[in-house]
Please model this.
Amino acid sequence: MTTPRASADIRLDGVSKTFDGRVRAVDDVSLAIEPGEFFSLLGPSGCGKTTTLRIIAGFEAPDSGRIHVGGTDITDVPVHRRDMGMVFQSYALFPHRTVAENVAFGLRMRGVHRNVISARVYEALEQVALVGYEQRRPAQLSGGQQQRVALARAIVIRPSVLLCDEPLGALDRKLRQSMQFELKQLQKELGVTLVFVTHDQEEALAMSDRIAVMNAGRLEQVGAPTEIYDRPRTRFVADFIGEINLFEGSWQGGRFTMRDGRVLPAAADGARSGAGAVAVRPEKARIVAPADAAIAGRIESANFLGGQVLYRIAAAGDRHLLAKETNVGAAVRPIGAEVGLSWNAADAVVLED
Amino acid sequence: MNAPGFDPGRAAYYALNGAIIVFLLTPIAIIAVFALNPTPYISFPPVGVTLRWFVKFLATEDFMVALWLSLRIAVVVLLLSMLIGGACALALARGQLPGARLLTAFFMSPLMLPAILTGLALFQVFQLPSVDRPVWGLMLGHTLVAVPYVLRTTLAVLANFDTRLEEAAASLGAAPLRVFYEVTLPLIRPGVIAGGIFAFIVSFDQFPISLFLVPPKGETLPVVLFNYMKFDLDGAIAAASMVSILLALSVVLLLERIIGLKAYVKL
Model:
């Protein structure tokens, strides 16, 4: 087993980038990524996550703001002196070189001695389980194998920071899941700081130590996966991550009231007043008798998901609510049944924005 | 599958292909027949097989001097046009130049103009400063019409070039010049060489431009052959043509072998 390598922290201070003088791709982003952290930039396409990664890598220069890695300001350091590993979505393997030559490239650029190169190439290929493929060309490999070569090529230079731009995006679902485990394990083994760009929220939740959710070039929320999922701060985050029931209304005397006057269970933090919104995850909502419910409706559809059943409930005012029940062997509730939803006040997420 | 029936569509397809191949190869076949026919004038049908016209061609000093000159010029044109055309293509595809489309059209324009006009224009250009008709003028003239071939093939490769490859190389520690030599150049090479082969052939059998630019006693092979043909129409002309064809073919095959045109690039 290799010794853990030094990993570096990354700090972005007020980084902005505008393209064509109009589109604000990245808008005043400040971030502090810990050494050895698995950090994801998550958001829909066009949210600025890839541009942020490319700014860290040095492919794009920010219009304003500074980037520090390991305490050093690298904003003006060119790409080839940044010492970061990069894995591209398209893998970007050199098609005219063999697997071994691809992996050796970074070492060759560093003037490492030939004998040392072959030993380290072997070690890197071992880490991605591709020993024996040295003399193949990229075109002769499957997508998953190309992905591993790209990974080996990036880690063989022992970077303190590894940047991944949707590295698993082109793989099929099954392969993606096993690569998620492997990548995460490899990252812990190497102790490298990893910045991971993805639009797949499940992937981000499963792999990350922390996630930054981005929208329209701005950071919406930064936090651990549980925090992002259980305590989304904004409507955007609540809506983007998983499924959620969103209720618009207003705060009056510490109580959340919908427009039709109904009071919903929710715990206000402090003296909140005026318009607001709360959100409830489907698995936190309980299906109860209409009389005991915070909100009543009729079961419109039931999707059996295996471990759970997802109910879609039509409520007053053309609303549709979601509730998930764990499959404990009970019969699926009949469609058309009059039911109600209830939840603990503590499970209602109070959205700030 | 039943017994193979007659498919008129497929038959017509093969017939058309056959006709096109016959059309393209007939002139070469005729040349070959005449080059091997012993009669001292071009006639049909051939009365025998002889190599005397090849011997005559190879033994005539005027032909050999011209052939050697043509070859030297073609090699220089090959190198010059690969250099200029390759650099041009890189600048046009990557340089973010204002008016890149217009510039591309401008550099391609020698292909659109009748070569006889280009030849006349060059003749006048060289007359103005009275530099007469030096051999480098001839090389420049050929290069002018050869560059567009390299430009076009290289631009085609660059249009499909994944710039992430260069970014990957940079992120692995390659300085910009190193990125060029390690990644960009090897990947555009098939395009540059394919264009270079065209350039060689364009120069080697260039006639209209050479006609204006060759000095007396410094004529290229096509011009010498043309002049010879005005007085004699024997098998030596056909033999010369055969030698030209074989030479051009061997240059193509040699380049293929040595540098390899197997494109790793998706074209």
Summary: Chain A touches chain B at residues 57-59, 78-86, 88, 90, 92-96, 105-106, 109-110, 137, 139, 153-154, 157, 163 (CB under 8 Å). The CA atoms of residues 187 and 194 of chain A lie 7 Å apart.
